[in-house]
Amino acid sequence: NAGLLSGLPFDARAIFQRPTLNAFMALSRREWRATRARLTELLAEGGDGALRTDAALRRSALCPMGDATMHLPAEVGDYTDFYSSREHATNVGIMFRGKDNALQPNWLHLPVGYHGRASSVVVSGTPIVRPRGQLQKDNDDPWKGAVYGPSRLLDMELEVGLFVGGRTPPLGRPIGIEEAEEYIFGLVLMNDWSARDIQKWEYVPLGPFGAKNFGTTISPWVVTLDALEPFRCATSAGVQDDPVPLDYLRDPSYGSYDIALEVDHTTPSGAVTTITKSNFRHMYWNIKQQLVHHSVTGCNMRPGDLLGSGTISGTSKGSYGSMLELTWRGAEEIKLSDGSTRKFLQDYDTLNIRGVCSGDGLPRIGFGDCSGQILPAGSYDTTDPAPVEEPLPFKDFVLYSYWRSTCTWRVRIALAYHGIDFVTKPVHLVRGGGEQLSADYTSTVNPMAQVPALSITDAASGASHTLTQSMAIIDFLDSLRAPSKPSLVPRGEGAEASLLRARALEIAELFGSGVQPLQNLATTKAIKSAVTPEGEAVDGRGWAASKIRSGLAAAERLAQASAGRFCVGHEVTVADLFLVPQLYNARRHGVDLAAYPTLLRVEAACSELPCFRAAHPDSQPDAEAGAPP
C-alpha cells in the first residue's frame, strides 16, 4: 500500500493481500527472484532507506516475531510423501525383511512415494491427537484379526517438504529434469507423524492409510532455492551409478543441500533432549527427481502442492530420522535428559524439528520450528451426550470491562470456559481521564474505580449483586459450574489435590498480587508523575517492565516444576488465566520473552482453546484497531 513493491513485475497489492501464498507461488521464478531482491534491498544495511527512515511505515510493515501468529503458508492442494533416503529404507528393510532383502527390487530405480492427505497438514504448534484404529491382535499371527484402540507405537518422521510453484505444465505434459527447479517454490521442515502399529496391520497390499493421515506438521517459513544455493552439496550416495537412473531421472547436477537437521523431544514436565541429528544430504533421490517422477505419467502439478522427502536418516544411530530406527523397532530405549526413557511417543510429549544452513563466510539460513505436542486419544471427541446442566441460580450477567485490561481478560476466559453468556459493558480506562473514575461508577459499581466488575441477578429473588476482583469472580463462576467440568481453581480431596490447588493459586497470585498492580495504568501514571531529587522524570514503563521481568522469571521457575501441558498439570487452571494476559502485557512493555520457554509453551497450548481465543482483547466489542502500546 505504501508503494515500496510497486516496481515488481506483477501487481504486488493484489498478490500479497491474500491469506495464503498460493497466488505468489503461481508466479514464475523470475518474479520470485525479483521480490526477494526487492525485500533484501529494503531490509539490508546500506540498501533502500525507505523503511529505515520512516518510523510509522516501519511499525506498520514490520511485526515483532513474538507478536506474530504463524499460519500455513499455502492452501495445500495435494500432498505426496516419498521414501527417498537410502539409509532409512535400508534400516527399515533390515528390520522387517533382513539384511539380504533390505531394499525392494524397484527402490534404486525410482523414487517410491504414496499420496497422503492434504486436509491434515497443519502448521507448527498445532497439537496432534493420538490416533485410534485397528491394531493386529496377535503380533505373530495376523489371521487372528484386529482390535480397536489408540496407537501405542506413535512415531515421528524427520522430513523436508517441497512446495510446488510456477506456471506448471498442463495435464499430460511431464516436467523435465532440466526445468524442475523452475517449479520448486521452496522447502519447509516436516514431521509426518506415523502410527506404526496401525500401519503394520493395514499396509498390505496398498501401503499406509490411516497410520499416516491423522497429522503432518510443517514449519511456516518457506526457504527458496535461491536462498539455499550457497549450500548445494553432494548426497551421501555421491553418485547414482549402480544402477544408473533412466534418462528422464538422470540429473546432470545431481546433489542435495547441506541442511543440518535436529529433533528435540520435550517431556510433559519440560525436560528437553535432542534425540537425533541428521542432514538433508542423506537423500538418494533428490527433490528434482521426486518432482519429475511424480509428473512422468503426465500428472499435472499445481502451485501449493506439497511433496515430502520421506524420513531422512544418516549412517549412524544418532542420525536416524524416526523412533522406529532409534529404538530399533522398540528393542532399545532413548535416554532423556531427566533420566526417563522412551521407545515411542507418550501423551503430552512434544517434538520440535529444527533446520539450519551455515558455513564459513556464508549467511546463516534458518527454517524456524516444526513443533507438535501429542494429546491423548479422544481429546476432541464430542460423541458423548452432553451432561444435563442445572439452570444457573443467577441470570443477567453483565461484565464491566476494558478490552485489554489484564484483570478483565481473566474473567472473560472463565466465563467462556464455563459457557456462561454475558453482556459486555465497556469502561474506557483512558478516555476523558478514565470512565472508571466517574462518581456514578464508583458509587454504583466499584468503589475502587477498577475493572472488572460482574453484575448478576438472583434468579429466584430478583436481587441484584455486583462482584469485583478477578480471583473472587473466577472462584464464584467455578462454584456455579464445578459439577460439569474441572474447576479452574482445583478442588478435590487428599494431599495431591491440595498441592495442585496450592500450585495453581501460587502462580495466579504471583501475577495478580506481585506483578499486575505494579504495571497497571494508575501505578505507571503515579511513577511518571514522580520526580527524582534532581528533578529528572522517572520512566514509568521501564520501571513496570523491570517488575514484569522479575515476575516472569519467578513464574518460569515455578512452572518448570509443575507444568504439564498447562501451568499446573494437563488441565487448564486459574494459573493459566493469569499467565496469558500477563504475557500479552509483557510484550506491550517491550519485554523479551525468550528467557521464559516454559511459559511460552503453556501460552501456545492455551491459544488453541476456544475460551482463550474468545477472550482475547482483539475479539472484544470495544477493541481499538491500531491502538498504541
Characteristics:
alpha+beta, single chain, about 625 residues, globular, about 30% helix, about 20% strand, 24 strands
Plain-language structure description:
The structure is a single chain. The protein is α+β, with helices and mostly antiparallel strands. The chain is 29% helix and 18% strand. It has 19 helices and 24 strands. A hairpin with a 7-residue loop joins strand 19 (350-357) and strand 20 (365-375). Helix 10 packs antiparallel against helix 17, helix 13 packs antiparallel against helix 16 and helix 17 (574-588) packs across helix 18. The protein is globular.
How is the topology of this model organized?
Blueprint: H1 12-16, H2 22-25, H3 29-43, H4 55-61, E1 79-82, H5 86-97, E2 113-115, E3 121-123, E4 128-129, E5 132-136, E6 146-150, E7 154-155, E8 158-164, E9 184-192, E10 194-195, H6 196-202, E11 216-218, H7 225-228, E12 232-233, E13 256-257, E14 260-266, E15 272-279, H8 287-295, E16 306-308, H9 323-326, E17 334-335, E18 341-342, E19 350-357, E20 365-375, E21 394-401, H10 406-417, E22 423-426, H11 439-444, E23 453-458, E24 464-468, H12 470-481, H13 495-514, H14 516-519, H15 521-529, H16 540-562, H17 574-588, H18 597-607, H19 610-615
Parallel strand pairs: 1-16, 3-11, 4-20, 21-22
Antiparallel strand pairs: 1-2, 5-6, 7-10, 8-9, 8-16, 9-11, 12-13, 14-15, 14-19, 17-18, 19-20, 21-23, 23-24
Helix pairs in contact: 10-12, 10-17, 13-16, 13-17, 15-16, 17-18
